[in-house]
Amino acid sequence: MVKLVLLRHGESEWNKENRFTGWTDVDLSERGVSEAHFAAELLKKDRYAFDLTFTSYLKRSIKTLWIVLEDLDMMWLPEFKSWRLNERHYGALQGLNKAETAKKFSEEQVNLWRRSYTVPPPSLTSDDPRNPAFEAKYKELDKNCIPLTESLKDTVERVIPYWEGTIIPLLKQNKKLLISAHGNSLRALVKYIDNISDDEIPHLNIPTGIPLVYEFDEEIKPLKHYYLADEETVRKAIEKVSSQLK
């Protein structure tokens, strides 16, 4: 049996303000830092250890990983970053308050942009200062790979090559891996692993700061998955995510 731990970063400053974040490089909130420490406590309690760690190019994900590794006294572990693990790009919605945007465009429309599998939010223009192409962290990336908006389907299409080309070969070597990433990059991964339908994936919510463990057979077929926190803690955290348009 092979185990993989997925961790959505702790609450960010824009999560706290209920704003669309996407590729905007927002820091952890004070609560987000606490959630990262809580994730480390859960992992420590069950004596988890890792061989390699993975994260995105965004500081809220990176810092969550660092806090966890420091608390586990494992900061020496190799850490690999990939833009493919970045959050879904929310286009022109980035920076807008979710509830206010729902009042302006209707909850139904914003929910379509936010949760539909195939419908992306309104796109940034190429000269918009929020375009990631202007950021130094993406200077080596082919400009054709840099999104101006993304649907979840688009996110799946950039995450899965990393899963198949990098993560699966390591799992087949029985490496113990920790991935610290984002709500939608992890939803993309979970959709693929569990073969969740396009119609069902909009209802999946992944809470911040609670480790999600997958167990696989030696062919990397999923056997089961579970959160390390108790059911009530997980339920409340999921409800918080699902109610963001209210």
Structure write-up:
The structure is a single chain. The chain has 246 residues and is an alpha/beta fold. It has helices spanning 13-16, 30-45, 59-71, 98-105, 107-115, 152-172, 183-194, 231-242, and strands at residues 2-8, 52-55, 79-81, 177-181, 212-216, 222-227. Strand 2 (52-55), helix 3 and strand 3 (79-81) form a beta-alpha-beta unit. Helix 2 (30-45) crosses helix 3 (59-71), helix 4 (98-105) packs across helix 5 and helix 6 (152-172) packs across helix 7 (183-194). The longest helix has 21 residues, at 152-172. It is globular. It starts with a strand and ends with a helix.
Average pLDDT reading:
95
- Helical content band: 25-40%
Distance between the termini: 41 Å
Q: Name the poorly predicted regions.
A: none
How many helix segments? Answer: 8
Order of helices and strands: EHHEHEHHHEHEEH
Instruction: Provide the structure class.
Output: alpha/beta
Radius of gyration: 17 Å
Percentage of residues in strands: 5-15%
- The total beta strand count reads 6
Main beta sheet strand tally, sense and closure: 6 strands, mixed
Shape: globular
In what order do the strands lie side by side in the largest sheet? Answer: 3-2-4-1-5-6
In short, what is this structure?
The protein has 246 residues and is α/β, with parallel strands linked by helices. It has helices at residues 13-16, 30-45, 59-71, 98-105, 107-115, 152-172, 183-194, 231-242, and strands at 2-8, 52-55, 79-81, 177-181, 212-216, 222-227. The chain has a 6-stranded mixed β-sheet.
